[in-house]
Amino acid sequence: MPDIKMEPLTLGTIICRFTVPQSVIDEINTDYDKTKDLPAHNKNLAGKIADEFKVTDILSENTKALFTTCFRTYLQTIQKPFWHVSLETAWINDMKANEYNPAHFHTSPETDLGMSS
Q1: What is the pLDDT of residue 32?
Q2: What is d(CA 63, CA 91) in angstroms, rounded to the nearest whole number?
Q3: How far are the Cα atoms of 58, 59, 60 from residue 27, in angstroms, in the given order?
Q4: Average pLDDT of 12-41?
Q5: b/e string for 34-66 if b means 16 or more Cβ within 10 A?
Q6: Are 95 and 49 within 8 A, CB to CB?
Q7: pLDDT value of position 43
Q8: Per-residue pLDDT at 112
Q9: How far, in Å, are 23, 58, 91, 100 from residue 86 at the CA level?
Q10: How far is CA 114 from the centre of its chain?
Q11: Does residue 66 surpass a pLDDT of 90?
Q12: Residue 53 forms beta bridges with which residues?
């Protein structure tokens, strides 16, 4: 597993800021750039962004495991270590000038708690 750093921040609720190796970011960007015909995800999102694409299926198992590990670390930090963690959907907001993503929260059919990264 790559070297991951975490810094908890308290802003009314605990927020954890994770720093992952640049190689992980490069892998996600490379896979995104070379994949054609990704499913649009605009109808599911809060922002006004032209290029929002579902990328769950192009993430490597290692990258999915990394995100899941970060989510579990977050739950341990907020003292909820027994809550279930699953990566249901991942997407990329490929933002351009004058596009925006307002403050919002995440939910799923299984829970009112959704995590964002």
Answers
A1: 93
A2: 13
A3: 10, 9, 9
A4: 90
A5: eeeebeebeeeeeeebeebbebeebbeeebeeb
A6: yes
A7: 81
A8: 65
A9: 23, 16, 15, 27
A10: 10
A11: yes
A12: 40, 92
What is the model's pTM? 0.76
Alpha-carbon distance values, 94 to 38, 49, 52 (Å): 12, 7, 6
Rounded distance between C-alpha atoms, residue 59 and residue 69, angstroms: 15
* Cα–Cα nearest to 100, from 53, 49, 52, 54: 49
Q: Check pLDDT > 70 for residue 1.
A: no
3-state secondary structure labels for all residues of the chain: CCCCEEEEEECCCEEEEEECCHHHHHHHHHHHHHCCCCCECHHHCCCECCCEEECHHHCCHHHHHHHHHHHHHHHHHCCCCCCCCCCCCCEEECCCCCCECCCCCCCCCCCCCCCCC
Question: What pLDDT shows up at residue 70?
Answer: 92
- The one-letter amino acid code at 112 reads D
